[in-house]
Write a structure and sequence with these properties.
Hypothetical protein af1432
Length: about 300
């Protein structure tokens, strides 16, 4: 059961606000299905559509083409250096849909949806925090994609999508908290709520989007992957590695030290030199992905 930690120095009113919000989160999870507040209908339709592996390209183009901004984002992603290494221009939606895997299309739909969330009036007060969460998500996605391509242990498209939604539980909590501004009076209390609830909420959200179990479990568990042995999918290790590289990319001396005991990176067959080379050689590729996903 999730609990809210009591933070030293926190007032009784702040503790009450945190407990009340935790009860609200619990009720939402129990009621199900969980949906991201303000998530555009077209993005939900795309998620539902792509849950069917037998869906036709024509159907995807028809649904996506009804939303010009989403269609443009998909074409932009198809033209990114990561998705288009030959640099052959993609100028139409049908070609873009055919070139991208389903997971990349899902990623484009999520990026479109979050961009719409950031513009909503009811989230104006939390826009800086929401934008920072999204920047972190885009950085995670671009890193996970290039790591997966380098390691050749799994689909880069799947890694891209998983990285982009790794913060979805945090985004959900933030948008729900917008209606309770008192929660932000004590950052320790709010962060305790995020720590205790975000992984479970992410699992519930992704289940409602009919995301495959491999991705759901990776998003739910990658933050606890720093153990010596872990069997199964490489995706949680890719996400854990992407998170570590992003958090320490501006501190090379700390990165080298951390890599000595970072089990997810070791399991992927990488070392400190590999990681440094990957960051340097993939800088342009990751930048193009960040642009396509909408920084």
């Amino acid at each position: 059961m999730n609990t809210i930690a009591t933070v030293p120095g926190e007032s009784g009113a702040q503790q009450d606000a945190g407990c009340e919000f935790a009860r609200e989160l619990s009720a939402a999870l129990s009621a199900g299905p969980v949906e991201l507040p303000g998530f555009p209908e077209v993005a939900l339709r795309v998620q539902d559509l792509l849950a069917d592996e037998g869906v036709s390209t024509d159907m995807v183009v028809r649904i996506v083409g009804a939303e010009a901004v989403l269609a443009a984002r998909i074409v932009s992603l198809a033209n990114s250096a990561a998705m288009n290494p030959s640099s052959t221009p993609v100028i139409d939606l049908r070609t873009a849909v055919a070139r991208l895997g389903f997971d990349s299309l899902r990623a484009a739909a999520v990026s479109f949806a979050v961009a719409q969330l950031r513009r909503r009036d009811e989230y104006r007060d939390i826009e800086p925090q929401l934008s920072q969460l999204w920047l972190d998500s885009v950085a995670m996605a671009s890193s996970a994609c290039v790591i997966a391509r380098r390691c050749r242990r799994m689909s880069p498209d799947t890694a891209l999508f998983a990285g982009l939604i790794a913060n979805v539980g945090r985004i959900y909590i933030l948008t729900r908290a917008a209606a309770h501004p008192g929660l932000f009076a004590d950052s320790g209390s709010y962060q305790a709520i995020v720590r205790d609830w975000h992984a479970g909420i992410a699992r519930a959200l992704l289940a409602s989007w009919q995301v495959v179990d491999e991705v759901v479990e990776a998003v739910h568990t990658f933050e606890t992957r720093d153990q010596a042995t872990r069997p199964g999918s490489a995706l949680p290790d890719v996400l854990a590695t992407a998170a570590l590289l992003n958090s320490l990319k501006d501190s090379p001396e700390l990165l080298v030290e951390k890599l000595r005991v970072a089990h997810p990176i070791t399991r992927l067959g990488l070392n400190a030199a590999d990681c440094t080379l990957l960051l340097n050689e993939s800088a342009a590729e990751m930048a193009s992905l960040r642009t396509a996903l909408g920084r």
